[in-house]
Amino acid sequence: MIVDRQAHGGHPHPPMLERLVFFSDAVFAIAITLLVIEIGAPHLPHGAGDIAHLQQLAQRIPNFIGFFVSFWVIAAFWGGHHSAFGLAGHYAPGLIGPNLAMLCAVAFMPFATAYMSENYGARVPAVLYNSVLLVTALLNLRLVRKVTAPPYLADGADSFQVATCRGRPWGVVVGATLALIVSFIAPFFAQMTLATIPLWIAIAVRRTTRGVPRP
Amino acid sequence: MIVDRQAHGGHPHPPMLERLVFFSDAVFAIAITLLVIEIGAPHLPHGAGDIAHLQQLAQRIPNFIGFFVSFWVIAAFWGGHHSAFGLAGHYAPGLIGPNLAMLCAVAFMPFATAYMSENYGARVPAVLYNSVLLVTALLNLRLVRKVTAPPYLADGADSFQVATCRGRPWGVVVGATLALIVSFIAPFFAQMTLATIPLWIAIAVRRTTRGVPRP
Amino acid sequence: MIVDRQAHGGHPHPPMLERLVFFSDAVFAIAITLLVIEIGAPHLPHGAGDIAHLQQLAQRIPNFIGFFVSFWVIAAFWGGHHSAFGLAGHYAPGLIGPNLAMLCAVAFMPFATAYMSENYGARVPAVLYNSVLLVTALLNLRLVRKVTAPPYLADGADSFQVATCRGRPWGVVVGATLALIVSFIAPFFAQMTLATIPLWIAIAVRRTTRGVPRP
Amino acid sequence: MIVDRQAHGGHPHPPMLERLVFFSDAVFAIAITLLVIEIGAPHLPHGAGDIAHLQQLAQRIPNFIGFFVSFWVIAAFWGGHHSAFGLAGHYAPGLIGPNLAMLCAVAFMPFATAYMSENYGARVPAVLYNSVLLVTALLNLRLVRKVTAPPYLADGADSFQVATCRGRPWGVVVGATLALIVSFIAPFFAQMTLATIPLWIAIAVRRTTRGVPRP
After folding, report:
1. How far is residue A67's CA from residue A25's CA, in Å, rounded to a whole number?
2. How many of the other CB atoms lie within 10 Å of CB of A215?
3. Which of A33, A38, A55 is the best residue to mutate to test the B interface, defined by the most B CB atoms within 10 Å of its own CB?
4. 0.95 exceeded by the pTM?
5. pLDDT tens across B119-138, in order?
6. Is the Cβ–Cβ distance between D151 and D92 less than 8 Å?
7. At C186, is the pLDDT very low, low, confident or very high (cuts 50, 70, 90)?
8. What are C91's strand-pairing partners?
9. Which of B25, B47, C88, C161 has its CA 20 to 30 A from that of B178?
10. CA nearest to D54, candidates A125, A131, A109, C45
11. Do A53 and B124 touch (CB under 8 A)?
């Protein structure tokens, strides 16, 4: 009993581009959800009071911050991937390598997050975290620029959307570079530097969309 | 060798809304399955008797309850997401933020579950768990209301289904609020309060669907 | 910038049945892959000889067997889900509950596997494992019978395929029942009883397909 | 409220081949992302200096190498699966068994990676890792050859692409065999042997595509 699957005008099935995106989504989703596993729930003796519990939670504040920062960092990479591939209309095997390279860096984030959170304020973990982040940002920049240009770009894609999409990765690169510099000098404040990323994204997008007509 | 992927009447491929839903499903599925990892299988010396094993399992009863309660809580959020996005027919980037915020709270549930289960009956873990649940319920309420209203709502969506969908999140908000109050006063009974959620959902749905013609 | 997603003849998008199946697949995939995490890699002192390493691996033989048995058990449930939903052509919310119930049992399998493997030969872990398996098999039976009958069954579905699909779950129920009985009497041999499942499936399918014309 | 899902010219929905691929992608994605979980973040006393941190990281160099090697090995299997199923146009249940067998070996890779990394240079872990790799490569070879031949191959699939696809798995088989031999003799150098895989793939593809007209 053979079922014919060649619907969709003779295109191979499942479509290659969709599967690439699907696999990437699964890796993003797992990396983003594994972050919480690394925290480790405190287990106190039976009858421990509220103060003892609050102290345990207070000790884990860096872990909670680490979870939230990395959740939004990975979420931002996912968002960029989502918009960039939304503008793609063609597939070629040349996308696989750059996409996997970026996913490899993303898959490493839970380790960098756990190490930085467990040793908050120390220089080496902060440098490692922000180096991983910078590498991810650069691999993301390469991927987004590749996928939003010919031959991958969909015919008739809106040029304003394309320019926006191509600007955003620069903002993450700038923010990660700054955080890396700060983590050498004042590791305790490195993670706060990441809060400036939206600002760099706004500036970068303003530059790449300058003169591009809005849709 | 470039493969053209622009089928489906010129829409970008893969479709943006489908990918958003897909990514959310993966996060829900991972969070719901990671719950069991936190229990930790007992390892007894070789030759340990049935009684010793049953005692070990009995000690883990709060963990088992925690697993089942959180499984159904996350499953209920997934079910609501499933029906709400089933009514959506349009996509805009404005959905991404509220959706990620809700997923962030869901991704934190395995930690809250493990902490509450490992210290069953203590006030702080119960308060933390039910606070996380209430935050998730509120973020879910915001998302569901957004996605089942213009400009996202599909043209010609059935108004009874829409009203049902928009009523359900209120039930979870009420249940989580009650459980949070109980967890301050009598933490041991807080989780049982969650069993009243179906009742609040039924009342909330009755209110939002009042006067709406059934399909 | 709103993108219209109402392709596919006015059907909601993403399709409800596809998303239900997708979410289930993710839960199956995570449960099946988490099994290996529970084994725990041995770490020997630097310079430890081959004999020491082989002894450590030998101690983990029950874990390896546990991994393989549970991998194929979950894979078999996935296979049945795959064929049953392949015959479905219609969606209604009534599928969500029975599907989630089955997934809840599947998500618990990694714990049951780890506990049974870590204490191989003990009665309580074997009884627990095979009870979880029997519950999963019964929930699977209910789900498969529901989805391969009206109103869910696709119009014009082949009756031989339907009969095959509806027969298979009975084989797992019989095998799990036998393994549960054996695990009370001779827990060491309970897992081997599971090897008879293909036989019960063959008998069950023969019964349900009797008299049904082959396609 | 029953929603009819029989779009796509009467084909069952969700499509069987797409779901098989989807489930496989999820298993690949989880296995590839779980690799990092096994590393384990170092936790140093508060105030530990940079040297102490760098020493801890230096001790984990085998774990980092293990993560990267296994990431790319699993990514390569995914890439081969992606191109092979991209050439498939028909579905039959006979694909399920060989596909699950390959996934079972992939799901075991995180254990083999962790064991090899934690005991880098020891013979038994290196032999185990490369045996698992060879088994995976052989199961992958069987699957790819099956799916790129009738009755699964899409009608009108390009013969050069088919020949390329069928050649690649041989390269991994040769590389894994060499690494297995080296791991018996000089386990420390076994993982470096894997770096020769691209060479064997190039040779294998040259052989299988010889005389096949380029598209």
Report:
1. 19
2. 8
3. A33
4. no
5. 999 999 999 999 999 999 99
6. yes
7. very high
8. D3
9. B25
10. A125
11. yes
